[in-house]
Protein: Zinc-binding dehydrogenase
Amino acid sequence: MRAAVLRGGRMVYRDDVPDPVPGPGQVLVAVRSCGICGSDLHFAAHGDEVVAMTERVSAGAGGMDVDLGRDVFMGHEFSAEVLEAGPDTETHPAGTLVTSIPVVLSGKGVEPIVYSNSTIGGYAERMLLSAPLLLPVPNGLDFRHASLTEPMAVGLHAVNKSNIAPGETALVLGCGPIGIAIIAALAARGVESVVASDFSPKRRELATAMGAHRALDPAQGSPFDTVKPAVVFEAVGVPGIIDDVLLRARPGTRLVVAGVCMQPDTVHPFFAIAKEINVQFVLAYSPEEFADSLRALAEGDIDVTPLITGEVGLDGVGAAFDDLADPERHCKILVTP
Ligand SMILES: [Zn+2]
Structure:
């Protein structure tokens, strides 16, 4: 079958990947749509660092079992159609549109569908999912939109972790896909004052389309000169941002760090101590939040149409990875095999 794989830092098209065979509890599905995630771009460029950092943080608990010298399968934001179930496995009828949290259960345990030499992800014609984890896509939600359940769940989780009340002001720093997902979740929650900040005019426009009430250009001055937020969401992920927030935020601010900074970063604890700032780092989402995210899309509480800026086939994934570097042109590119 056809797939796009990471080989030597580039996404390469293949038409000779063996079809996966579903085992007990597994379901063979045909991928309908898979979003390209910023973490995939980062892994393509800096996979060795990601593997090394994961190794360190997991402290001997296994780390990340991936060999960058071999082809790597990726793609964790997908919707798919049920084809057939493995032995002794009950599932939805063939043709049902589904999505799932990106893990598959096998004899080896829980395998993440993220970066793997063997577990096929969403940049492929077909892949394996686990029957008990399948969520049928309700309300006739478009398969392209359904594939964005995963990135939107990341935003929902960050917002849930913040415990923000509707009357509090939120400031979202960075309007890439994570910042945009946070903005959408804040708007869906009914937060009355959502302020976004990004250098890119296109991204500020997108932030407004997704529910931000104001979008500021940080080149014109610190957003903290304009707003006094109760909750700050950091979705940039570069060194220096956290310290700047600690310096400028008002006492009692809650800072939610959703940006993924892979470099060491320096902070002045005294800035945070002096103002009793709460810092919460966040990652991913719970299975319940994933299901809530699908529901929000299917019920129209969140419309992801403005996010989708491109669509490519499996042979276009390499070029799409390059194109996503330009924030003026792209937010989400979908791979539709
Ligand atoms: Zn992702």
